[in-house]
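User: Let's play a game. I give you a shape written as tokens, and you guess the letters that built it. Ready? Here's round one.
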């Protein structure tokens, strides 16, 4: 299977339009060894033609322009996007749905009932799209059973509920439900190769560890280096764990978890603009390099 990283940044992107943090300030002035990034999304295919989108970023139009394999091929209207799977209902993962309103077919959207509820109430994109292309909602199972998606050949999917956070506008922001946020195992049927994708991961529960151990490649939450990153940079009073993201450094952090999987390809995605790993010359980035942990970037392709 092929995975294309359409966008690798967390909400706000990098640099963020109004941000003057150490990273944003320097990347804007070309004073940092690093890459600008759009908000997180990946596309997956086994034939280079029919793609499943994971999340629809506010930056989706830029991401599609940069990726010929997903662009129209025949007829007056066409797309390589055959279906969309939503990990959560956060703005950085769902706003792009509105950019796909010109679709000739209803959008086939796979997501949990919780995400569907958010996208019909707090951020009613599903309702808005009723007056454009309309949406076919396909609920995803949270009990460990697998499912397939028509026209996405040779892949099967296992979705599991994760401990992260519903968005601020969700009617159940402070009342967590299964399915507010999910992780996905993507398995290629013909080869048995598996990827675990979880861009928002607040806690490594036993079922998450099991999924990571089974995978040949994990693409997981790379949002923050430390729990207090936004606090110490005077950006926000919110801590990483409070908003559903496990930081990379320190005891029980993501690096420690990933170091327990030495034979797995390990890639961080959904990286916040405050994270020092965006500076490719930073000590923090060197720590990842030494551990063999990769930092995804826009346009990265993973062949598995
Ligand atoms: C998050 O995952 O916490 C987000 O990136 C927040 C946002 O989109 O503002
Ligand atoms: Mn996010
Ligand atoms: Zn910034």
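Assistant: Ready! My guess for every position:
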């Amino acid at each position: 299977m092929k995975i294309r990283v359409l966008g690798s940044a967390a909400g706000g992107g990098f640099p963020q339009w109004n941000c003057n943090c150490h990273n944003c300030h320097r990347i804007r002035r070309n004073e940092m060894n690093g890459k600008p990034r759009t908000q997180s999304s990946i596309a997956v295919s086994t034939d280079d033609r029919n793609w499943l989108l994971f999340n629809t970023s506010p930056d989706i139009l830029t991401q599609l322009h940069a990726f010929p394999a997903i662009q129209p091929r025949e007829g007056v209207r066409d797309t390589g996007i055959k279906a969309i799977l939503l990990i959560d209902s956060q703005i950085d993962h769902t706003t792009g749905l509105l950019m796909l309103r010109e679709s000739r077919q209803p959008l086939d959207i796979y997501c949990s009932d919780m995400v569907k509820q958010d996208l019909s109430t707090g951020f009613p994109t599903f309702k808005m799209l009723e007056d454009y292309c309309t949406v076919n909602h396909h609920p995803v199972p949270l009990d460990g059973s697998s499912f397939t998606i028509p026209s996405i050949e040779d892949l099967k999917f296992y979705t599991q509920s994760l401990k992260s956070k519903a968005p601020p506008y969700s009617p159940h922001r402070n009342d967590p439900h299964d399915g507010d946020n999910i992780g996905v195992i993507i398995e290629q049927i013909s080869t048995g190769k598996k990827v675990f994708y979880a861009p928002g991961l607040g806690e490594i529960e036993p079922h998450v560890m099991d999924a990571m151990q089974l995978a040949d490649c994990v693409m997981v939450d790379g949002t923050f280096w430390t729990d207090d990153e936004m606090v110490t940079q005077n950006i926000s009073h919110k801590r990483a764990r409070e908003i559903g993201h496990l930081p990379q450094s320190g005891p029980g952090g993501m690096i420690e978890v990933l170091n327990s999987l030495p034979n797995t390809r390990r890639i961080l995605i959904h990286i916040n603009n405050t994270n020092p790993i965006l500076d490719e010359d930073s000590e923090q980035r060197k720590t990842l390099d030494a551990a063999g942990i990769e930092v995804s970037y826009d346009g990265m392709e993973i062949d598995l």
